Amino acid sequence: MTSDHGESGHGRADPAAARAPEVRAPWERFAWVMGAVWLLFLAFPLVEAFRVDRPVLVRALAVAAILGFAALYLYGFVRLSRYDDKRQGARFGLAVLAGMSLLALVAGLVVGGRAAGMTTFLLASGMFSQPLRRAYLMAVGWVAVSAVVLLVTGLWAQLWFLVGINVLVGLFTGFIRWLDQRQGDHERLRRELDLVAERERVARDVHDVLGHSLTVITVKAELAERLVDADPGAAKAEITQIRSLTREALAEIRATVAGLRVARLGDELTAARDTLTGAGITADVPADPDVVDPRHRLVLAWVLREAVTNVVRHSRASTCTVRLGRASLEVLDDGVGLDGARESSGLRGVRERVDGAGGTVTLGPGDHGAGTRLEVTW
């Protein structure tokens, strides 16, 4: 028997699972493409490094610094997407930014103000690696640095557009970060809502299964108690059915928790007839579910189960009638009626199921104001 943790009954890990290759998300595999595209703009300081009037070794140092800057930027861009822990990712991003800043400084000392364009990559790297508020502050800082460098070196008139590029990159990447954070909040909320909905589904299904099964078992146990002296054979047969019902209920609970439980209208019609008859209620229940639109049969099967359970438990009725239509179900009894009683959790579950399927539930008095009528229609 296999446990929930993928280990065999002898405690050994599944070899197939152990050999299963790690599946990486497409963003992790191809993030370097997005980073590599923008490296074309490093051609400007790189060309300047070759052209600047400096000794060969100095120019070689500048070229190496620019190439190292590009490699570190691309490495940081790819590696950052693999961090699930945002704090670890931010620390890694700071280390990358520190290395890039040092290399940009080395290149700037050689090529001068024409290296100001490298601040664009520092801005983008900080924007995608740091917490949002810090990223915004750093972006403003890099825009200011690029403007100061161009003013100090006297290149403002020629290269003022580099500051404009930094502003545009900052606005664009800042908007992407803001949108990404909103999307993350939305995804977390959606997962929480999905979890709540799943819990409600399990609770509703368990209630319906247990409520019906325990009601039938109670009815049969009372009948067996009455027959035990008068007709021991019949009492024994009822007890045998009780044992069978408990096994079925246990199997249904397991299937419900696993999300595999499916109610069938034909089975529920038969079960409704047997349950009502066993409780001493005259049952008028159709035998053929085919009159119902197949789209509605699953929901109506659950509704019928809960309705019959309530009739047996609370109505004190002598007769119960079930009517089916192509897009409707009606359960009518001649019992004590609602009498101002509060709606049970089972009926709330019925409303949730029917509302989710686009139908309407009507609950009120029966014919001539007596008993109870439960009607579901589309």
From TrEMBL:
Keyword Cell membrane listed: no
Alphabetically ordered keywords of this record: Kinase, Membrane, Transferase, Transmembrane, Transmembrane helix, Two-component regulatory system
Entries under Pfam families matching the protein: HisKA_3
GO molecular function, a single term: kinase activity
Residue ranges of domain Signal transduction histidine kinase subgroup 3 dimerisation and phosphoacceptor in the record: 198-262
InterPro entries per UniProt: HATPase_C_sf, Sensor_HK_TwoCompSys, Sig_transdc_His_kin_sub3_dim/P
Recorded superkingdom: Bacteria
Membrane-crossing residue ranges in chain numbering: 30-49, 56-75, 95-123, 135-153, 159-179
Name this polypeptide is given: Sensor histidine kinase
